[in-house]
Write a structure and sequence with these properties.
Layout: E1 8-14, E2 17-22, H1 33-45, E3 54-59, H2 70-73, H3 78-97, E4 102-106, E5 110-111, H4 113-120, E6 123-127, E7 131-133, H5 147-155, H6 157-166, E8 170-171, H7 172-177, E9 183-185, H8 190-202, H9 206-219, H10 224-239, H11 242-252
Parallel strand pairs: 2-3, 3-4, 4-6, 5-7, 6-9
Antiparallel strand pairs: 1-2, 7-8
Helix pairs in contact: 1-3, 4-5, 5-6, 9-10
């Protein structure tokens, strides 16, 4: 994991929780080429770490993420656009495949690619001031960071079509009602609220969490019994871990378990 980033503010806020803030506040954390590259590297590095149990993704300043940096893309050739977008594609795939839970703390506007980051997380909390939109059709493009795949999985096909066809902004309360976020918090309590959840996850057996995430992610793509096969494969991997022995022992000894990720 890199120690220095130009577009991200990465800090260890707890022994096992990593806070990642999109850090271009002067541009409302719009996604530029460097941010795509750094996010891709970050998510990839987290695939093999044993030090981090949970990641909180948020935005520096008043916005979560205003989407793609359209000033950077103004006059860009199709060839360069495609080259840059290929990095974003890798970053989104790496985010989804990251075994560590990624929780989004939506502190402000999450538009276009910003909303796609929220949808790519495992679940999200939002401040009451947060707003959301998929405005791409208003400028002649469409979602390209898994938005058309993750949005209907969150809120249903008909609602996803309405959001993408109209491009209109919607509120945190609507996002909660539609299943896009899990909880709404007061702005000054958002990080503390989601931090408590991240810490609770951090106390669980990490290998079990990783396998649960993989099995649940498979549920959207597979029929019931094929998905159950994925679950059983994951279950059997957990069965042979030292953490499973420790968890059972701790339960019977009426103490908190000490998991090591092995």
């Amino acid at each position: 994991m890199r120690e220095h980033y130009l577009t991200l503010n990465v800090s260890r806020v707890d022994e096992r929780v990593l806070l990642v803030a999109l850090n271009r506040p002067e541009f409302r954390n719009a996604i530029n080429a460097k941010m795509m590259e750094e996010l891709c590297g970050l998510w990839t590095s987290l695939r093999t770490t044993t030090e981090v149990a949970c990641v909180i993704l948020t935005g520096q300043g008043e916005a979560f993420c205003a989407g793609a940096d359209l000033k950077e893309r103004n006059g860009m050739t199709v060839e360069v656009w495609r080259e840059q977008h290929a990095i974003l594609e890798k970053a989104m795939k790496a985010m989804i495949e990251c075994p560590i839970p990624v929780l989004a703390a939506v502190n402000g506007a999450a538009l276009g690619g910003g909303l796609e980051f929220v949808l790519g997380s495992d679940f999200a909390y939002a401040s009451v001031e947060a707003t959301f939109a998929m405005p791409e059709t208003s400028i002649g493009i469409m979602p390209g960071a898994m938005g058309t795949q993750n949005l209907p999985r969150a809120c249903g096909t008909r609602r996803a079509k309405e959001i993408c066809f109209t491009g209109r902004r919607f509120s945190a309360s609507e996002a909660l009602e539609w299943g896009i976020v899990n909880k709404i918090c007061k702005a000054d309590e958002l990080i503390d609220e989601i931090m408590r959840v991240a810490q609770a996850i951090g106390r669980k057996a990490p290998l079990a969490i990783h396998q649960v995430k993989q099995a649940i992610n498979a549920a959207d793509q597979l029929d019931l019994f094929t998905g159950y096969g994925v679950e059983l494969e994951a279950y059997n991997k957990v069965l042979v871990t030292k953490d499973r022995d420790e968890g059972i022992r701790a339960f019977n000894e009426k103490r908190a378990p000490h998991f090591t990720g092995s």
